[in-house]
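Researcher: Let's do a round of design. I'm pasting the structure tokens now; please hold your answer until I've finished.
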């Protein structure tokens, strides 16, 4: 996308990266509050107190159509076919929650907008069978957008690209430089007009989250979610109060970059780091320091016949009130993600992995997390 830089798979940052340091000691996850937080119902959970049910794991569509960070900076028919395969395999596996954004994908080098692709995939699937898909998309708080009307205008553009009359979740992608109260009012307007079934935010700090929750509450609109960077090796939401605030207020935490852009899958090694922009983040030196943790993940996964990817996604699910949204570029990845569901790590395994992960220094974060 036009302004996108490395911020995490499944969601993106749109400002230069800053090094992320731990600023507080870890606090164990708090019990989920009864005020509407992720109530489990079979294979689905509720987004906060909204009443919108989504699968316990979703699929991030940042890479679909993107030529600025993913796909080796080019988009072609093969990658389009792979993305369609990822969508179909997800649905076939029972995962029907998809997260996109108006800024995912770019109209250069043959690429098209991620929302347009998702809308096309849904339409083609529905022509074959009646399938219910939950869509989450996001508003870009660009500096030249002012007031609540800009939210409605952008949302209508997203709905047009998606080919739907409403979406299950509409989120503010990141806090604006100014005008955030107007953006929140716009979310409430969209909810009242029936254009969205729930509203959320993304990359919001604890203070911003509490302020947004209070402002929307005055309109009678529940704040359903906060989408943030969260993984076994990036646990900032546990340390900055965001996870605890989500649990307290009944707000679902949607975790983007849950497999750390592939670093936690075991696919990459010091001798085989990722290519492109990710290679500047997950360097050979970083991957060397990560190997003991990867080995432990493999060991634990072996006892369940699960891959490292499935283990680290399950680790997030075990935190409670968390919906991971890994990015799937093809059918094989989508099917692997589905294997993270239907089982749980033991409490001892969860804490053993957290303890080992403390030795791995986080390498990135979206700067507004500290605002």
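Researcher: That's everything. Go ahead.
Model: Designed sequence:
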């Amino acid at each position: 996308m036009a302004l996108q830089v490395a911020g995490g798979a499944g969601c993106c940052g749109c400002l230069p990266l800053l090094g992320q340091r731990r600023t507080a000691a870890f606090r164990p996850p708090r019990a989920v509050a009864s005020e509407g937080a992720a109530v489990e119902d079979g294979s689905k959970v509720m987004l906060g107190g909204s009443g919108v049910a989504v699968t316990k794991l979703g699929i991030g569509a940042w890479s679909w159509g993107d030529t600025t960070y993913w796909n080796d900076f080019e988009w072609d028919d093969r990658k389009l076919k792979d993305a369609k395969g990822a969508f179909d395999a997800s649905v076939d596996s029972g995962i029907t929650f998809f997260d996109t954004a108006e800024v995912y994908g770019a109209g250069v080098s043959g690429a098209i907008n991620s929302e347009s692709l998702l809308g096309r995939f849904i339409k083609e699937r529905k022509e074959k069978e009646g399938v219910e898909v939950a869509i989450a998309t996001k508003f870009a708080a660009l500096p030249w957008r002012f007031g609540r009307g800009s939210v409605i205008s952008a949302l209508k553009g997203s709905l047009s690209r998606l080919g739907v009359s409403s979406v299950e979740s509409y989120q503010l992608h990141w806090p604006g430089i100014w005008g955030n109260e107007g953006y929140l009012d716009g979310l409430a307007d969209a909810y009242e007009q029936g254009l969205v079934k729930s509203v959320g935010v993304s990359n919001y700090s604890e203070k911003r989250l509490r302020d947004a929750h209070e402002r929307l509450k005055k309109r009678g609109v529940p704040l359903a979610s906060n989408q943030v960077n969260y993984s076994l090796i990036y646990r900032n939401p546990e340390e900055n109060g965001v996870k605890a605030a989500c649990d307290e207020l009944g707000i679902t935490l949607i975790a983007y970059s849950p497999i750390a852009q592939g670093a936690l899958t075991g696919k990459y090694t010091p001798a085989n780091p990722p290519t492109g922009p990710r290679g500047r983040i997950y360097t050979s030196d970083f991957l060397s320091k990560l190997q003991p943790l990867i080995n432990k993940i493999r060991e634990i996964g072996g006892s369940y016949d699960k891959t490292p990817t499935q283990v680290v996604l399950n680790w997030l699910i075990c935190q409670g009130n968390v919906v991971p949204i890994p990015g799937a570029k093809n059918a094989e990845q989508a099917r692997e993600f589905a294997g993270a569901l239907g089982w749980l790590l033991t409490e001892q395994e969860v804490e053993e992995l957290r303890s080992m992960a403390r030795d791995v220094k986080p390498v990135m974060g979206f700067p507004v997390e500290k605002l």
